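EamA family transporter: structure, please.
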Amino acid sequence: MTARPLASPLESASALLPVAAVVGSVIALCVGTSFAKHLFGAVGAEGVTALRVTIAAIMLSAIWRPWQGRLSLKDASRVALFGVTLGVMNLCFYMAIRSIPLGLAIAIEFTGPLAVALASSRRGLDLLWIALAAPGLGLLLPLGHGVSALDPAGVGFALAAAVCWALYIVQGSRLGHLHGGRAIALAMTAAAAVTLPIGVAAAGAALVDPNVLLIALGVAALSSALPYSLEIYALPRLPRQTFGVLLSLEPAVGSLAGLAILGERLAATEWAAIGAIVLASAGAAATARRSRTTHPESEPEAASS
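Here you go.
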């Protein structure tokens, strides 16, 4: 039996690049969303959503040039529905973080993809992930009698975003035969068609203030264009389980970004809730059956939160 040759430093570094890309994507998304919250005073959550989605649509269209491809009527309607879901998800998420901390909103939103993952499995092991996630979510929900100090409206919007994220995954799984970059560029354009009129109605001329646009440009780049591009690079180079586990870090990273950038301090019970949901999400991803496949468009990465 021959010894397996050791990987060269160059090969080891190359193997780590996809992992670094996913981690970088999560960090960029959370940092970008934290800075987006600074714009709420100027244009509101609706205006921030409109600017982020619209600018991201322009960026992604410039990168992927979706007009170069052709779609059947059936595919076009699916992409449009996917984009509408994406727009509503973004709007609900930004409405949520008006009144609840970023990390907690992400944790609640993560129950959407977690529910999709667990619904497609019938194994006893998945009961463990449910047993972890349910108490974590229970600690965050305002169930009355002082159980949670979180704003009920904010939690409601986060739960709505979770439902949209679940729908986003299901709808995205039907687009796997399409070019990933072009599909998400078209979907983001459809999302802009939903969110821009709402943003204009809420913020009006404030949306074109040069200072607001400059910050919004950075937010769109950090929270949409950069994360999606990094994940497009990582997805073909990582096992789905590894990708899912790494993505499950997002609620924790969001909490740290909220603390560092926004000064959002969490109680011990809230950190415990985030930890439970992160462990449940990571566990569900790590133990997912290899036969269960999804497509790049179904991954929640850059288009979410």
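Notes: Residues 291-303 have pLDDT under 50 and may be disordered.
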